[in-house]
Amino acid sequence: MDPSVSVRAFHKNVHGEDIKVAVKAVRGFKDILPGQSENWRAVEDVARDVFESFGLREIRTPVLEKTDVFVRGIGEHTDIVEKEMYTFPDRNGDSLTLRPEATAGVIRAAIEHKLYAESGTLKLFTMGPMFRHERPQKGRLRQFHQINVELLGTDSPLSDGEVIWMAWDVLHELGAQDLRLEVNSLGCPACRKEHRKDLNLYLEQVSPDLCPDCQRRSRTNPLRIFDCKNQRCREVMARAPLIKHHLCPGCSDHFGKVLDVLESVEIPFVINPYLVRGLDYYVRTTFEILASGLGAQNTVAAGGRYDGLVRSLGGPDIPGVGMAIGMERLLLLLDSPSSRMTTDIFVAALGREARDEVMPWIRDWRRMGFVVQMSYEEKSLKAQMKEANRLGAGYVLIVGEDELDREELILRDMKTKEQIAIPMDDVISRVENILNRGDE
Ligand code: ATP
Ligand code: MG
């Protein structure tokens, strides 16, 4: 298709008249602007460092997958699959979906490339955008970002503990305050079967008091009712039979050992016996880290164990445990100031000859890692000083005809307003030394 056709069509109304509308981002999709992106990168860097200290490696999977990956991976009767996915047919008719979460895609990749065969436990992290068609509000977007961890191939409670520990350390390292870690065990399919019998009996009695969604859930996925945000449902479920009374000895022991790990590394937690997760595949450990000060969307990180998932996506029967940190919520929590542009040195070259002269110096300083800027236009010294100020330059190097003749340049410290002369034949290392001193 000729791209200009669609662009033109876009600017006409139904009557074919030209309309002038500013093009805006899609609702619930946000730009991450300069000034904000620095904070994003700082968070990602901390997460990378923490994960690498646990021996994890990064994986990046596509944002688009076959719809089936998520239907099988997340479960048909979940909010995500039932009403939140961006699903559309590819041009050949295949159903595709923008990933609403990372785990299913990471596992699809691990199976496809047989990554699990390489070592005992496959320890992966990933970060990137996720897409869910939800009502946009504070801490809830349609394109949002997660930092994810997945450990595949072990059911050791130490791995559950480490996953929580990693989430906790990332938040802690970033200085997030007033966090509350809630943990629970959802048991295995055997304990769940026993629990479900009791739960179904209870739900039959209270069904009229539940919201329409939960009435439906009581037939399809009753555990999810614990997760309903409706106040009435919460009250009703406060008296519901709890999974903790049905844990088999294996699950009970496993849960106890996860809590031991948390205690041994001094991570404070509370057991919340009502905590379930929105996705079908969770078994045993489940956890959330909540932050006061986020309003209604107060879960900043969440995760748990998903032992049946790899198999249900067509892989071998290996267990797994993982977690996701919500980037936007985390950044809200950190209240990071927007950062300004800074420039180590601005080179004010006046005239063609000066410009040619300074180019190799600029190249060398940039290669040393300094931020070096210059004017793209031929401008007066006054205009260039103004630009240097706007760019937050620490120093300005003034190179005009006179300076070239004298073979001596002027370096102005923008903070102290002091100016010093620098011999031209030594300019690269002299400036390097001065800029390095500024770092101290
Ligand atoms: P919630 O109950 O808030 O809808 P969830 O159970 O759907 O969360 P998960 O699927 O567990 O969330 O995703 C993990 C994390 O990703 C959440 O704890 C949250 O921090 C973040 N998150 C989930 N959905 C959104 C969204 N629409 N916008 C921003 N962040 C989100
Ligand atoms: Mg949700």
Characterise this structure:
With 440 residues, the protein is an alpha+beta fold. The chain has two domains: 37-188 and 248-333, Bira Bifunctional Protein, Domain 2 (BirA Bifunctional Protein, domain 2, 2-Layer Sandwich), CATH 3.30.930; 343-439, Rossmann fold, CATH 3.40.50.800. Helix content is 39%, strand content 21%. It contains 16 helices and 16 strands. The chain has helices at residues 3-10, 37-53, 67-74, 79-84, 103-112, 157-173, 189-206, 212-220, 231-237, 249-264, 309-312, 327-334, 352-367, 381-390, 401-406, 427-439; strands spanning 57-58, 64-66, 86-89, 95-98, 122-131, 143-152, 179-185, 270-271, 283-291, 299-305, 320-326, 343-349, 372-374, 393-399, 408-413, 419-423. An eight-stranded mixed sheet has the order 1-5-6-11-10-9-7-8. It has a five-stranded mixed sheet with strand order 13-12-14-15-16, with helices on both faces. Strands 2-4-3 form a three-stranded antiparallel sheet. α2 (37-53) packs antiparallel against α6 (157-173), α3 (67-74) packs across α5 and α6 packs parallel to α10. Magnesium ion (MG) binds next to loops.
List ligands, each type once.
adenosine-5'-triphosphate, magnesium ion
Please list the strands of the largest sheet in the order they lie side by side: 1-5-6-11-10-9-7-8
Number of domains: 2
Main sheet properties = 8 strands, mixed
The CATH architecture of the largest domain would be: 2-Layer Sandwich
How many strand elements?
Answer: 16
Helix content: 25-40%
- Unreliable runs, pLDDT <50, ≥5 residues? 1-5
Can you tell me the CATH topology of the largest domain? BirA Bifunctional Protein, domain 2
Radius of gyration: 29 Å
CATH top-level class of the largest domain: Alpha Beta
Structural class: alpha+beta
> What would you give as the CATH superfamily of the largest domain?
Bira Bifunctional Protein, Domain 2
The gross shape turns out to be elongated
What portion of residues belong to β-strands?
A: 15-25%
The number of helical elements comes to 16
Mean pLDDT: 92
Ends apart, CA distance between termini: 57 Å
